[in-house]
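Subject: mismatched residue count in predicted assembly?

I count 680 residues in my input, but I want to confirm that the predicted structure covers every chain. Input:
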Amino acid sequence: MDIQVSETGNYILLRIEGKLDSTTSMEFGTIAESKAKEKPTNMIIDLSELSYISSSGLRIFLQLAKIVKQNGTKLFLAAMQGQVKEIFDLAGFTPYFSIVNSVDEASSRMGNESR
Amino acid sequence: MKRPENITYWVDEVPPPWISLLQGLQHISVYAISLVFPVLIVSTINASKEQAMFLVSVSMIAGGVGVILQAIKRGPMGSGFLIPQICGPSFIPSSLLAVQVGGIPLMLGMTMFAGSLEMVFSRFLRKMRALFPPEVTGTIVTMVGISVVGLAMKNFAGLGGNDTVVEPAELLVSIVTLGTMVGINVWTKGKLKMFSVLVGMVVGYVLAIFTGVISPGALAQIKNASAAWFPFTHHPGWAFRGDMVLPFGIAMICSSLKSIGDMITAQKINDRDWKRPDMENISGGILADGAGCFTAGVLGGMGQSTSSANLGLTIATGVTSRRVALWMGGLLIAGGFLPKISALFAVMPRPLMGSVLIFALSFMVVAGFQIITSRMMDARKTFVVGFSIIFGLSADLTPQIYQNVPHWIHPVVASSLSLSAVLAVLLNLVFRIGISNKESFRIQVGAGSEEIFQKMEKLGKRWGARPEIIYRSVAALDELRSLIESFPNPSQSFEVNAKFDEFNLDLTIGVPWKLPETAAGENAAPHDEIPTETSLATTMLKRIPDRISFHEDKSGTRIKIHFDH
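Triage response: the counts match. Full output below for your records.
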């Protein structure tokens, strides 16, 4: 798994590549949670290259959602691929997250909602 | 069945009458290409003009009956889909043989025989499902497209019969016709897109008249045709011969295999959630196909089979409504009694035929690829597909190889389609040798999901399992692995017993513990309180498979995980 972090004025963008299972989730969780706590800003997670997610990965998203809620900011999950989406649906998570088609859509929604 | 997004009028939907009428005409314009075959057959015995006209008219009537029988689905008859029937190319070699040996009556008698045989064959199809996995049917669908390339390209270039010169005017008509069809299909939306072929044909006919590609003689043929006639008075009767049973039997098998491919395509394009061929439906479709062929023999037409080119048209236009089948059937039957209409299609210039074929068959070739790759490919399947296509094509590319084969094999090697179809079925049977549908393997508890992916994907390829089912089985095993990992003294590894057939994937795992009771399956959704890792893993383990059961005894827990395939 590979994680890239970039920050702009409005949001933090995290890009995950590969599989998010019990062996890789902790690393992702540590990076993402520390970013979310250190700078209370909106967060977009680009999932276009995420090929698999297990319950350990799902749990990290729950933790991130809790942190951004406490911060009063927003979390967007962008470009989720079919099979990962199916796992999200099976877990019953889909209605509780802002799932968007692309990073651009997430950033434009952020712009609209802040106006 | 779920409605696919790219369909404009789905199978059960009823378009306005004018759309159904124009769609019916459009299908007839594709259908009409096959009327060349009966003309070609009778031309080899110097039959009279009346005999040729009789054969064309009655073939149209039989085609009309066939498309209706196929679409209406009454009792065991019909698939319920819009799958037009045409004069089947698979019947050309045997029909040529029959007219030379015993004239048109023998061809009609043996066509009746082939139709009856196909109807009987349809009753056993459900039990023969193992013979037609996606790599076999997909190969047949692909080859249906590829095998017509020669005919399509010759017509596109305006060649055929005594015409061996590519004339600029013909090429112009071809390019403009195909360009119009493709342009409308790709760059327009809504109603116009539904009629891309019809508009292309009209443009093509007009251009053909202006450039002289349609000869004044052909136009006179339409003008001089009588307004109405009753073709059955010209019926020459029937004849049968024992030595024709084999050629017509083989033609029937080839024709049915192609029709099975067409029916699978029809199922696939009409169902967003298509997973596997519905053999019950195919069995009804083949019964109707056989009934259409039998009707042709009785009334006096050429052997019929479903039309891949017309099916390509339904994909291109997004109109699969069975109402169109009724209009098309009605128009074809009427056309059989109205020689002016049949003459209009009978004089269709070659460039137009070539353009329509190239347009429609592009969709068939791609539909075939999609069926083939709907399962994971391994070396066995690769050889089934590769060998069938390569050896199959040799029938057309290097026919001299087959010059000295026994007489009874001729219908098989007569075309690349029939050779490919027969090879695909046989090779699939051969390569089933040594495939075990049971396998045991161990999973390391401390490792990540990667090891499970590797093992399950390897098995999935060998078994030809659907990739999405294999993916879900990996997800379930990975959740089980994390559960076991969370126990106080986890073992190093655990054994998985996997069992597969075309309908089921079952995984059985025995663990020496009782699994923790959790409130799994109820609430995994985000709450302020985040579930523990064990609880979330148990929830997912229970939700990912189609069924899961836990059997506890003294030695621990036996977990059975089931996926529908």
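The domain at 2-94 of chain A is CATH 3.30.750.24 (Transcription Regulator spoIIAA). Marking this ticket as 'not a bug'.
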